[in-house]
Amino acid sequence: MALGTAGAIRIYKTSTGFRARVLVRDYDGHVRAVERNAASRIAAERALKLALRDRAPGKSGGELTADSRVLLLGEAWYAGLDNLSPITLQAYRDRLDRQLLPRLGQLRIRELSVGILDRHLRDIADHHGIATARMCRSVLSGMCALAARHDALPHNPVKDLGRINGRPKTAPRALTLAELRQLRAALTYDEKAIARDLPELVAFLMATGLRIGEACGLTWSAVDLEGGLVEVTAAAVRVRGEGLAIKSTKTDAGRRTLILPRWCTDMLRDRARRSGGTTGGRGARPVFPAPLGGWRDPSNTQADLRDAFAAAGFDWVTSHVFRKTVATLMDQAGLSSRAAADQLGHANTSMTTDVYFGRKIAATGAATVLEALADTESLNSTGTVRDGVSK
């Protein structure tokens, strides 16, 4: 017999009913007998065929088998992830916890058919947006590839899925320079925003286009006030089982050094002075700590920002809008997409560009473009508005 095949099913009468029996050659080369008993001949044969389906392929293929739960597969796949940024890891974790495992976790791996996956992904696209569905598809592809390597699936069914169609979410628009100035000024009059130490955090996001987790995880040792530079090497992220943690950026695109606009450097210099001591003396302390001390939680900070933006009449704005705004302003100023990718920490999709063009260039041009924020009203260190360019 060939590996993974069974011989002819034989059925015997017993004192209590019928026994169906067959010889199977497993993937380790051994021939084993598989039996099932039932009250009738047909029931015994049906039970045996189900047993053959559930045991193959490969009980010897490892911890994962065709009969393992998808929940176990998802956790095994996630545990094996390596060399990914903390933000990407958290995004994958969220897709598992919020969309995939609640829907598919109790299925057997053998039940992950093209049709099942297609229906679930289309439903996710309808309720959570195409971008979320596409990330879920990527996660499922990794999970099913792992299952195939364990012989728990004959192949990766995700490869046979069609295009994901659905109603796309409205893409966030960028702020204009006038809107940036208006929002920044409005926050300086918001007592709740000031109490939560939001005005300077928002100004920093405007000046750099950093992700909220990167800003929350920024330490004073990564800020060069003399050179007007900031080094992005880590991000604050909430990890299941660990709580809030500072994870180093593992991707080349994410690790970058940026030039700050002069007004932002002045703001950070004032902030450093108010916090006491020199930059070197503060070392690993956060630049933007939580109001009560310690690291800022990006999720909690997002909620605080939503409140502040809504109070200022910008309820559609999120921290991600500042990233889009920085990229848009750079594009309008005639700067290249390469420079924008370096500024935002995006990996380039072109291998040629990645290989032949230098990355990590601090002079992306964003600092010059964003100097325009200081052309009109600017902020002093106490959160009040003064005329002229910040000093």
UniProtKB/TrEMBL annotation:
GO biological process terms, semicolon-separated: DNA integration; DNA recombination
InterPro entries (alphabetical): DNA_brk_join_enz, Integrase-like_cat_sf, Integrase_catalytic, Integrase_recombinase_N, Phage_Integrase
Presence of keyword Transcription regulation: no
Region (Disordered) residue spans: 274-295
Keywords: DNA integration, DNA recombination, DNA-binding
The species this protein was found in: Petropleomorpha daqingensis
Domain Tyr recombinase residues, every copy: 170-371
Taxonomic lineage of the native organism: Bacteria, Bacillati, Actinomycetota, Actinomycetes, Geodermatophilales
Family as reported in the entry's similarity comment: Belongs to the 'phage' integrase family.
Keyword Thylakoid found: no
Protein name as annotated: Integrase
Pfam families, sorted: Phage_integrase
MF annotations from Gene Ontology: DNA binding
PANTHER family assigned to the protein according to its UniProt record, in alphabetical order: PROPHAGE INTEGRASE, PROPHAGE INTEGRASE INTS-RELATED
